[in-house]
Amino acid sequence: MVDAAIAAKFPQETDEQRITRLVQEGVDAATARMVQSGQLAPGRKGIVMTAEQAAAANSGADVISEKTKMPASWGDKPLHEMSHEDLIARTAPVLANHVFGERAAKIA
């Protein structure tokens, strides 16, 4: 009777469950060691760049013009003086890059 109560309270894991648990513990321990030693950067799940990736992606950013406070490649014309076509040509890539990030180049 005592054995049945103990078995009910503490169910035994199957061999497959035990192997899965041991493998997962090993992977978690190895990942923690690699992160601690600097071999692996701790990342976040989802579509998020690490700080280093974001800095590398923005390293080629356009220089800002002091006169217009906009990218120098856009010219010296203020936004309100640009034609609709010029405005779309200059802002669409920037907006797409902002919204889609690295995927913008794949979409365009």
Q: Which word captures the global form?
A: elongated
Multimeric state: single chain
State the share of residues found in helices, binned by percent.
55-70%
- Compressed to H and E, one letter per element, the order equals HHHHH
Number of helices: 5
Distance between the termini: 70 Å
Strand content bin:
under 5%
The number of distinct β-strands equals 0
Calculate Rg over CA atoms. Answer: 27 Å
Low-confidence stretches: none
Structural class by SSE content:
mainly alpha
The major beta sheet can be summarized as: none
Average pLDDT level: 79
Task: Give the SSE layout.
Elements lengths: L1 H8 L5 H23 L13 H8 L25 H17 L3 H4 L1
